[in-house]
Amino acid sequence: MSELHHSCPALFISAPASGHGKTTITAALARLYRSQGRRVRVFKTGPDFLDPMVLEQASGQPVVNLDLWLGGEDHCRRQVALAAAEADVLLVEGVMGLYDGEPSSADLAQLLGIPVVAVINARGMGQTIGALAQGLLAYRPELKFAGVLANGVASPRHAQMLRQGLRNARPSVPLLTGLQRDMQFALPERHLGLVAAPEIADLDARLDAVAERMSSTSLATLPDPVDFGTPPPERDFARLLAGKTIAVARDLAFSFIYTANLELLQQMGASLAFFSPLADDPLPPCDAVWLPGGYPELYLATLQAAQVTQSGLRAHAAAGKPLYAECGGMLFLLDSIVGQDGSSGQMCGVLPGQATVQPRLQGLGYQTLKLNLPGAVGEHLRCHTFHYSRAVVGAQFMARGERLFDSSEGEVVYRQQQVTASYLHAYFRSAPRTVAALLGGAVA
């Protein structure tokens, strides 16, 4: 690896809270810079699967999650430094509010040295925006700030009031731009996240429109370069999956996949074969299967009709081959899923049980999982959970996740022969030997 320090213009897009428009603004900036002929790399803070899809379509480049707890400081710094070596501009979208969570978006922005753009929805607000911006700056003075982007500006007079409030802040805060209300292109949401990018038919038109409006603002000019230093060295992962082919479900129903997880499997020597249950693909010839999470409850009729895929999964499990299922993937293995509207679909029946989608969130947050599988004793798999369904599963209890911030019970992990299933979404790099053991790899 070169010892040169990698530098690149960069901005960290954050806000006082969710709902201020971070993803829309980040995607619009990515599309704006891309339209200028620049190579844009975008990152998403936290364990998010949906925002990266929108950001990837906006930038035309893969979007990687940066999570200090799941991946660690060195992994985050390495990903950004490597991207800086090949990109013309970097954008990082924060998660929730700037200081929310442990670790927070502010922790990541400070680690990387990227100046923060505070996106503030100014609807119903005048000079008070100055107090809000001043509080964001004063809460952690060592954090670098680029300024405020006001969202939802009603009129030129409203913009004048916002500028006055920001000038009165101590220190004064620049208003980078104000987006008028008719310039807002709010992206549709589902539950606590966005609708998946492929489901938004006019997404490109929305992004092009708001990017065009932003082309006349100060943000059309690239920010100052940030020196990201020399990338930390990559960890040396044993090739415990050498010679193994892992079939991975990937389509609109099963799309919750960390890019880093796919890379880790390949670094351990695995070959990946993708298939689509929605398309009723036959299961590829493989040694193991990974069914990631997603929204199977939105496609009950299609998945019920996917008899080729279903029979392939049943045969795979009956043959005693490893099958690892996360959240929506676990639901697909059950006998049936009942949607929130009462509709139902017959699923694979690999695991006895039924899932029912609830009107309220049933699980959210970080959890640690210790499975003590052969060759992986002592490893702790770092995971995240987010689901609206409740499942009754008639399979053997294997383990339970441990919540990071409270003592309430974590998610159950079920095991039946070589089938392992849970609501947990795992970050594979945190416990590579455990992942290898789940997928039938060599026991080191």
UniProtKB/TrEMBL annotation:
Keywords: ATP-binding, Cobalamin biosynthesis, Glutamine amidotransferase, Ligase, Magnesium, Nucleotide-binding. The keyword ATP-binding applies. InterPro entries: CbiA/CobB_synth (IPR004484), Class_I_gatase-like (IPR029062), CobQ/CobB/MinD/ParA_Nub-bd_dom (IPR002586), GATase_3 (IPR011698), P-loop_NTPase (IPR027417). It is an enzyme of class 6 (ligase). GO terms for molecular function: cobyrinic acid a,c-diamide synthase activity; hydrogenobyrinic acid a,c-diamide synthase (glutamine-hydrolysing) activity. Its cofactor is Mg(2+). Residues 245-430 form the CobB/CobQ-like glutamine amidotransferase domain. Belongs to the CobB/CobQ family. CobQ subfamily. This is Cobyrinic acid a,c-diamide synthase. The lineage of its organism: Bacteria, Pseudomonadati, Pseudomonadota, Betaproteobacteria, Burkholderiales.
